[in-house]
Amino acid sequence: MKIVLASNNPGKLAELQAMLAPLGMDLVRQAELGIGEAEEPFRTFVENALAKARHAAAASGLPALADDAGLCVDAFGGLPGVDTAYYGTQFGYAKGDAGNVCALLEQMQGIDNRRAAMVSTLVALRRADDPEPLIAVGRVVGEITREPRGSGGFGFDPVMFIPEQGQTFAEMPAALKNTLSHRGRAVRAMAALLRERWL
Fold it and tell me: What string of DSSP letters covers 144-188?
């Protein structure tokens, strides 16, 4: 089954493709179909993921899968949340992983409460006006390190320390990260929903 991925993030595509391949899902990034990015005006992951999936499904005529994910830092009252992708820009950094990580570490200097959660909300639609979207949420709790560690992954992986593993996501082999990560948990829940409802 061909599904348009409502994202242009190559890291997300690689992770999702690897985890959904056993279901026979062939993900294609929306950019490959000439589809621009959707507006994300909402303050919750689920609303933004739904908006992105509707946009991609309407523009492509294909079923769509969207992911809205972010970092929720306890000391910041759950922020940056839905603004995670642009977090560093509010502190003068260019948009991107490196700027986001630098900004986060700067803003957390002197803060002892390092607890944070990475959250992934996946939404799948058969078509743009699907009245029954499939929604799956994955969440993992860890601590923000005081400096980046590891070279794998993307986003905040170098500073997201998982105490049970004694490693950041960036230090883990990809297979272990995919098992433990917020996105891995959301994809497993979504795969179960897809099997039950669509396949």
Answer: E-SS---SSSSTTGGGEEETTTTEEGGGS-HHHHHHHSHHHHHHH
